[in-house]
Specification:
The chain is an alpha/beta fold. The protein has helices at residues 2-38, 43-48, 51-61, 104-107, 130-133, 143-155, 170-182, 199-202, 221-227, 234-249, 279-289, 320-333; strands at residues 91-99, 112-117, 139-141, 161-164, 189-193, 211-214, 253-254, 261-270, 295-299, 338-340. It has one domain (40-340): TIM Barrel (Alpha-Beta Barrel), CATH 3.20.20. It contains twelve helices and ten strands. Strands 1, 2, 3, 4, 5, 6, 7, 8, 9 and 10 form a ten-stranded mixed beta sheet that branches. Helix 7 links the parallel strand 4 (161-164) and strand 5. The radius of gyration is 22 Å and the shape is globular.
Length: 343
């Protein structure tokens, strides 16, 4: 008799757990559905007007002698030559899926639908994802594959499509988005980049990208040139690019019900040892050239990966004082929407 009662009790617990999990899944679906019904990204209109495809084709032709990034290396990518970024015209993707380690405004319950593109033009000696960005880890995908990946991420409940290190594949992204939008993609596009961009190319993304998520790594060119090999104009190019991003999307706007990001600029700044990042100059520029309420995430997670061991001044984690000094510099500059990380 006791065994029968225990069996019944176990069954009741099991089905109770299934019910609770099911309710959570329904809540997550309702949150995502609500988000869809209240928001339509502007790229939908561009797709219907044929503008997405047109822009993608225009940038595709520029890969003949590539000038899509500040390197202006002139690689003949359409003929298979790889540029300084190590990309040719074949689309290479490292991985994709829901990501829960991004800013809360991007993650929600369903995660941010990240797509990690292989290769990168900035060549940071300390890159945490060096196997992807500089060692070529990834596989070749077609433009149709990329469109289907976007749709899969939406179907899985992701709240946005988060394009990580996308600069060298903007033509592919525009053409894939043209296909995905026609098939029903309706979640925001996040452009997650190093910040070192050509403002003139970023203009092609006007009313395409909903949320810009650029790094602002350095406030001084001499450090950028040393630690992001040869990026001697990092500060000027990044300032121009971020100013253009702000012109397009403005201050971050979130869904009042869910808190999820819908449109706007979110800047990341990674604090580095010995003030290699020149944080005060970064925050001063933001405060003087963008709205004071611009979203700024001050990040503490610097870890000396890849070739950092060859540079003693950055071959360690940051100290609590170094992080707090950066936060204080942002406050002193007058920024009012600072996001701090635990240390």
């Amino acid at each position: 008799m006791i065994r029968i009662l225990l069996l019944i009790f176990t069954i009741l617990i099991f089905f109770s757990g299934c019910y609770i999990n099911g309710q959570k899944q329904i809540e997550n679906m309702n949150e995502t559905d609500s988000f869809f019904t209240e928001f339509e990204p502007s790229y939908v209109k561009l797709q219907k007007e044929g503008i997405l495809k047109q822009r993608g084709q225009e940038l595709w032709e520029r890969m003949a002698q590539c000038d899509l990034c500040p390197r202006n290396c002139g690689a003949k990518r359409l003929e298979g030559e790889r540029g300084i970024c190590k990309a040719n015209s074949k689309l290479e993707i490292s991985s994709y899926g829901p990501h829960f380690g991004e800013e809360p405004e991007l993650v929600g319950n369903g995660g941010s639908g990240t797509i990690f593109f292989t290769n990168c033009a900035l060549l940071c000696v300390f890159c945490i994802n060096y196997d992807i960005s500089q060692m070529g880890y990834g596989t070749v995908h077609s433009i149709e594959d990329l469109a289907n990946i976007m749709l899969q991420l939406q179907k899985r409940g992701c709240h946005n499509i988060n394009l990580v290190s996308p600069s060298h594949y903007i033509p592919h992204i525009l053409l894939a988005l043209d296909i995905a939008s026609e098939k029903g993609l309706r979640i925001p596009i996040v452009y997650n980049s190093s910040g070192w961009e050509k403002a003139e190319v970023i203009k092609y993304l006007d009313k395409v990208v909903d949320i810009y998520l650029p790094d602002f790594k350095y406030g001084c060119n001499h450090h950028a040139k040393k630690y992001s090999i040869g990026a001697s104009d990092y500060v000027e190019r990044t300032q121009e690019a971020i100013a253009e991003m702000n012109r397009q999307v403005g201050v971050l706007k979130t869904n009042p019900k869910t808190g999820l990001a819908q449109r706007g600029l979110m800047i990341r700044h990674l604090v580095m040892p010995n003030n290699v990042s020149c944080s005060e100059q970064v925050f001063k520029w933001i405060a003087e050239n963008l709205p004071k309420e611009t979203y700024v995430n001050i990040m503490s997670q610097y870890t000396p990966y890849f070739k950092a061991k060859h540079y003693p001044e950055i071959n360690r984690r940051i100290t609590l004082k170094e992080y707090q000094d950066a936060v204080n510099a942002a406050k002193k500059a007058g920024l009012t929407n600072i996001k701090q990380q635990g240390y």
